[in-house]
Amino acid sequence: MGGSRVQVNKPHKSRFSSKSSRSIHKVSQKDKNRIAKSDRNVTKGARAARLQRSKMLREQKRAALLKEKRASSGLASPPRVILLFPLSASVNVSSLAEDLLRLLSTECTGVLSSTVASSEYKLRLTVLQAPHGDLLSCMEMAKVADLIAFVASATEGVRCDYIDSFGSQCLSVFRSLGLPSTVVLIRDLPTELKRRNDAKKICTSSLTSEFPEDCKFYPADTKDDLHKFVWLFKEQRLTTPNWRNQRPYLMAQKVDMVQDDSSPGKCTLLLTGYTRARCLSVNQLVHVSGAGDFQLSKIEIIKDPTPLNTRKEHDAMDSDDIQVVEVLHSLAPDPLNLEPLLVENVPDPLAGEQTWPTEAEMAEADRNQKQKKLRKRTLPRGTSEYQAAWIVDDTDEEHSDAKDDGDDDEDDDGMVLDEGESGFPSQEGANNLDFDEDQASLYLRDSDEETENDSMMMEGENLTREQIEDEIKKIKEAHAEDEEFPDEVDTPLDVPARKRFAKHRGVKSFRTSLWDPKESLPPEYARIFAFDNFARTQKHVIAKSLELEQESRDDCAPAGSYARLYIKEVPLDVASKLCVVSRTAPIISCGLLQHESKMSVLHFSIKKHDSYDAPIKAKEEFIFHVGFRQFVARPIFSTDNINSDKHKMERFLHAGRFSIASIYAPISFPPLPLIVLKGAGGASTLTVAAVGSLRSIDPDRIILKKIILTGYPQRVSKLKATVRYMFHNPEDVRWFKPVEVWTKCGRRGRIKEPVGTHGAMKCVFNGGLQQHDTVCMSLYKRSYPKWPEHRFPLLNA
């Protein structure tokens, strides 16, 4: 064909030209492994690290659990403490304790000890019986109990509730302390099987809501019931509150005293028992419940009187005739490592003084003294030279007045005492000026103390019954008035307001205004200690305690050992009281951490107890139970303001809400529970007033006492109003002029000028004022707790 193009077969447009070339671009598996080796190793290494870490954590938990099990149920562990608490007065706890001890003890006759060892059950047990009606003994027993067995009677459900008022009160206190492991033992069940099961179901359903979810209910009438309970109790993993495991403690089984000849009025207190929770160092300070903090002179490790091994039991019985306590070894304190018993800081009275004067200054002072002697002065009749030296001269008064006149601008900003106005009608004459000023200052000091609610009830033996009832009635009326009209104070008629409220100041904004925490501190602040960083110090102290626990030191009595503590320099009367108290309640001695003997300002989150009906007034005397420790304190109450560094003081502890209680007390590191006890009507019996927990230790916490001065509109014209009855003289109006005023209906304003001579004033507001409205002025001053006269309850008894 002419002109035609020859068709040429083109190769197929595929990715590969031939089958053999398809795999040329591919990378072999070997090369792939070589190329991706680094990334895969990173992934594989991270996964291996995670697996190794999880395995290590599992092993640590397993080892900790095994250590805890050996510590609680091993041969070296102390006897478990079980507290039998009756829920009502009709429950017979003594018979149950006897049955339980008979089951575990090998002795069939004779008086049984409260601590027994059973080789059959491989268990050592200490049984405590809570006395019904004795709140303090029940609290002390609950602090050391590993298991609280609440005993209920099945016959109580027919007549009334299973829990009476005292049982309900103690149960709420135990919850505040932190409940350990709990069980309920049911007594007096019917012998017939059907009725027995029905009574048990009724009792269980009635009491389930009062106890934790894991609480078990056991019948406890027959020996078989107790046998089943003991086997389950032996295998049970006991839980205790966390605060109890932070410090070593000892529940004394024997309390003795040895008089110290070197120091009269002192003695050495001997407490014998098992050390628990942690090892106790002989260089540590210890706290004895209700008595105070002391140093140890010696610790003796004694042979265990109730060993679990049968062979050791026979050896102990053979040596019982000798009546000699075998001391395994003795621990003596090291003077270099001994913790000092430092309670208060010793203030230096010359710390704020200036340096020593120069010779020129001393010569000038001598010349001034000679000139004063040559000057004739008019003095009251009978005034000595020493008294005359304290009387201010007229020239000094004129100099100070001239200086005050030059500082008018500063007087407008700050409210200080105006020396030019006396405000007392009896001050007539220049000769009685100094005497009247001293009398006025004394009167102001007394009235200020009354405003701070410092007036305490007198001792019960100095007052008649009618006077005590009148005092209680006044406190209740003040409590009701504080709830209805909080912080409102009447301006006195006989004292100028600028003098009566000289320590108070106005604050522009309670939340944002600055208040120096180091300003005008009371003398008690020179006796206390403060931390630069409390959280860091607490972390360091607890880490040091853990390090002491992990090291096998020669100066420590290990946990679970039977030891005798020699506590030195205990007052004789306190030691004798402890010997008497030990018959009904356990005496607890706990080791203190570093710094825990020093005084500071402690803050507690506190709530009024539901069973306490009387008003709780600030700065009254209470007994604070903080963990194992007890001390007397006079707290002030305040709100917990999280939006500001300033907190408003409360004159009373109101029911149904939490407040912050601030006290002077020895340092304690949280977390710790708090039980506040108060004597009922001056009697020796104590009642629960409030419960709570330790919050922080901070002397710089600013607590402001607020007062409200009130006035009433006399004439209202648009934004202006004439207000009366807030002040009673025009000088007070000028003095408080910089402070803002407000009304109960939400208006805000300022004082413009005084009107007349009776304290009326003209005010300008940001809105129209109603005739029935009330004009208020808020003033603040910083408040502090009261220093207790006696720091510990036994010293006050």
TrEMBL record:
GO CC field: nucleolus; preribosome, small subunit precursor
Subcellular location(s): the record lists: Nucleus, Nucleolus
One short Pfam family name for this protein? AARP2CN
- Bms1-type G domain: residues covered: 78-239
Annotated keywords: Nucleus, Ribosome biogenesis
Lineage, opening ranks: Eukaryota, Viridiplantae, Streptophyta, Embryophyta, Tracheophyta
MF GO annotations: GTP binding; GTPase activity; U3 snoRNA binding
The gene that this protein is the product of is LOC111315247
InterPro entries, A to Z: AARP2CN (IPR012948), Bms1/Tsr1 (IPR039761), BMS1_TSR1_C (IPR007034), G_Bms1/Tsr1_dom (IPR030387)
State the family it belongs to: Belongs to the TRAFAC class translation factor GTPase superfamily. Bms1-like GTPase family. TSR1 subfamily.
In which residue ranges is the amino acid composition biased (Basic residues)? 10-27
Q: Which SMART domains match?
A: AARP2CN (SM00785), DUF663 (SM01362)
* GO annotation (BP), single: endonucleolytic cleavage of tricistronic rRNA transcript (SSU-rRNA, 5.8S rRNA, LSU-rRNA)
The Acidic residues compositionally biased stretches are: 393-421
Start and end residues of each stretch annotated as Disordered = 1-51, 385-433
Principal location: nucleus
Q: Classify the source by domain of life.
A: Eukaryota
For bias type Basic and acidic residues, the affected ranges are 28-42
The name this protein goes by in its record: Pre-rRNA-processing protein TSR1 homolog isoform X2
